[in-house]
Amino acid sequence: MNLFRDGKVRERYPVPMYPQSILPHAHNEFLQLAADLGIPGLLWWCGIYAAVGCMLWRVYRTAGPSLRLLAAAVAAALLAHLIFSLGDAVPIWDRFGFIYWWMLAAACILDRLNSNAQVQPDVVTG
User: Fold this and answer.
1) What is the pLDDT of residues 99-123, one digit of tens each?
2) What's this model's pTM, rounded to 2 decimal places?
3) How far is CA 117 from CA 5, 64, 65, 72, in A?
């Protein structure tokens, strides 16, 4: 993992017209993940996007107004991250990669809150 910056890799695959021998990252999150983790890692990453998208869609469809608003906000943040990642990338193990994982955690929390709100306790009346 994270061998894109390795000097040995850059010696074998040089980048013409780049003054430094070590590149910081691939400037495309999907290309960066494919270079670092291979095709299985790229599929895993796309699966995370799909699973979180399904969770947020379910929360948006079934939740009350406050959770619906939060789900839309998290979805907008993840969409902004996705669009930004097509032209530049913050590698997932680098300085600000934790913000992406916080957004995923927020999506999971919203899904959990929504599923707990959907469960109605049995009321025993006598």
Assistant:
1) 888 999 999 999 999 988 776 555 4
2) 0.74
3) 46, 9, 13, 18
